[in-house]
Amino acid sequence: MSTESFTAVANRTPGHVHIVLIATGSVASVKIPLIVKELLQHKRVKIQVVATKASQVFFDSARLKAEHGVNIWQDEDEWTASLSWKKMGDAILHIELRRWADLVLIAPCSANTLAKLAGGLCDNLATSLLRALPPIQTDVEQASLIADRPGESTRVEVWVFPAMNTLMYEHPLTAMHLKVVKETLKYRVEGPIGKGLACGDVGLGAMTEWKDIVKMVVDHYRLERSH
Amino acid sequence: MSTESFTAVANRTPGHVHIVLIATGSVASVKIPLIVKELLQHKRVKIQVVATKASQVFFDSARLKAEHGVNIWQDEDEWTASLSWKKMGDAILHIELRRWADLVLIAPCSANTLAKLAGGLCDNLATSLLRALPPIQTDVEQASLIADRPGESTRVEVWVFPAMNTLMYEHPLTAMHLKVVKETLKYRVEGPIGKGLACGDVGLGAMTEWKDIVKMVVDHYRLERSH
Amino acid sequence: MSTESFTAVANRTPGHVHIVLIATGSVASVKIPLIVKELLQHKRVKIQVVATKASQVFFDSARLKAEHGVNIWQDEDEWTASLSWKKMGDAILHIELRRWADLVLIAPCSANTLAKLAGGLCDNLATSLLRALPPIQTDVEQASLIADRPGESTRVEVWVFPAMNTLMYEHPLTAMHLKVVKETLKYRVEGPIGKGLACGDVGLGAMTEWKDIVKMVVDHYRLERSH
Ligand SMILES: Cc1cc2nc3c(=O)[nH]c(=O)nc-3n(C[C@H](O)[C@H](O)[C@H](O)COP(=O)(O)O)c2cc1C
Ligand SMILES: Cc1cc2nc3c(=O)[nH]c(=O)nc-3n(C[C@H](O)[C@H](O)[C@H](O)COP(=O)(O)O)c2cc1C
Ligand SMILES: Cc1cc2nc3c(=O)[nH]c(=O)nc-3n(C[C@H](O)[C@H](O)[C@H](O)COP(=O)(O)O)c2cc1C
Fold first, then answer.
1. pTM attached to this predicted model
2. Which residues of A touch B158 (CB under 8 A)?
3. What tens digit of pLDDT does each residue of B101-119 get?
4. Residue B83: count of CB within 10 angstroms of its CB
5. How far, in Å, is the centroid of ligand 2 from the Cα of B56?
6. B8-221: CATH topology
7. Which GO terms describe its biological process (chains A, B, C) (predicted)?
8. Nearest CB partner across the interface for B199, out of C95, C121, C123
């Protein structure tokens, strides 16, 4: 991705909102490029995308990187890429991304990743990063506060946007997992909404409209458009 | 597998029992060809086999397909095969298989797949299909009723046949997982039975005899032999 | 690894302590060679190493095998290696290792493997072996008793040494998983300890010092140094 390992200290910019956007294997990952592009129309925004293996069929990583200059991190970057960990003292990618982030958006969040979060599993980059996050209270009063320390974010919020087939959503374990994610992990959950889904079913399960996701971020951090 | 994507609407036959047979990584998957062959000796039966990666060492998929003309679906068929999802509007295999099925047999069900079902994980075709099934009451009175709508099954039953080493079966989490699968997901669980196992241990853990599995299906749907 | 499949009956030596050392994807797996080497300085000790895929970046398996003659078992040995299971009657590696073992050390135990153990998942050799272990009471009075039957260990203890980033350790699910592992599975959990970690964080999360792990084994089984 570059000639140096990614570290929080080298990549955080004081006064900016550092957003990790996690894409998972829901068809709603087709919206990832739109979310990235629209967020980047605002001042003080930096983005890193983390993509699960299953998510990658839904958007064109190379093009997204070329057009917007964002990194799209994959599991290989943690383990086998030339800049991944080789010896004691080297940067550990999921830890550096956690340090870098002020906000983690899981948009879309698949049923599978939701189950992994509720079960504490961390067998890929996305879930390892999340497993290394301390839960916080999502407190609207404090929310506009952006950590200004260059080296590390002190307060990381996680917002989850479930997106799945209606019957997957109605599966009884979905509600149980969402409860753990909200109450134990203190993540903010938004959606899903009802509409026609990619599979042809109609019902609750679709990801919150991508424009609304962007708007939530913009409102929360009082971001201004660049031009 | 064919020149067209699999869809429920094109592959359901009114008046037939549509059976998805899931094979998992238990040595009892050596019985898969026998179960398929015997079920197909009956009228009004259609079968799709879904095989986890670990199950595939235990039977010869190519031969099963050649001899009985059944599809053996693998994870690649969902993701990378030429007929897998490429763009919005394409069929999604695990959703189509769920729509197609009147009955899902997990025979054998490994300890690992059982744990995944109880945890709501769906990282392969077999568990994605199951995650997209609404739980129903297994009601013997209603059971002979077969959905006659060509496009989609309205009532899908799931029968689970655990098969594992005796000590795996005695592991305290097995009972907890079976409880979730029965009470929360409303699956029917049959067996395991006691006998000498492949690993040389003797005790409870073996899959219900494959002939008894076939008989349960035959009795439940009042199937008649073809000749 | 050799020209014959591994079986407990052919590889147990009466009067010896048979130790399976499981390495997982924590950076503390760099200590695996030191633990092996130091344990082997004692009489009556035999070791098999089982390494998860993620652990293998942290130590040099080939060198460890060459220098100390220990087997380093990987997932491939269960499935695809020339000596893995091919037909009914063949040895099943995770079952044979369970029969062989008097003591299983998970050192280090990653957050992910801990979550899998608490969830009963067994999708690799390490967790399949553990899933096939009956829980026992870790009773210090009985502990010096070593099974003398050549064919199979009758009493297997499991000791867990968690090792993870401080914030991973503070994640609320860690405590819940440790509780299941201790109370339901009856594993002994030691550590983690506080110190500077590989990722640069300081806090609770580091694996118990490798020398202390060796000392616990030596004391428990009253092992004597060879020379
Ligand atoms: C074409 C296609 C579309 C899918 N859409 C969804 C979806 O919207 N939501 C979901 O939870 N799973 C969906 N799945 C299933 C997931 O991709 C699957 O469970 C995968 O293992 C998720 O992996 P991840 O959670 O690591 O990204 C879809 C699968 C395919 C093949
Ligand atoms: C030769 C062999 C036989 C096995 N037999 C069983 C079994 O009978 N039951 C079981 O639960 N696991 C058994 N396993 C372990 C599973 O294959 C393993 O847990 C795997 O990850 C299951 O994957 P799946 O649930 O995705 O099919 C066996 C493994 C091997 C190598
Ligand atoms: C360089 C590096 C160091 C890691 N150190 C740890 C660690 O100390 N503890 C931990 O729980 N996970 C750690 N991880 C994350 C795990 O390797 C990851 O969750 C993996 O999926 C664990 O797989 P396993 O449990 O099958 O071994 C580390 C990852 C990398 C890339």
1. 0.94
2. none
3. 999 999 999 999 999 999 9
4. 15
5. 11
6. Rossmann fold (3.40.50)
7. coenzyme A biosynthetic process
8. C95
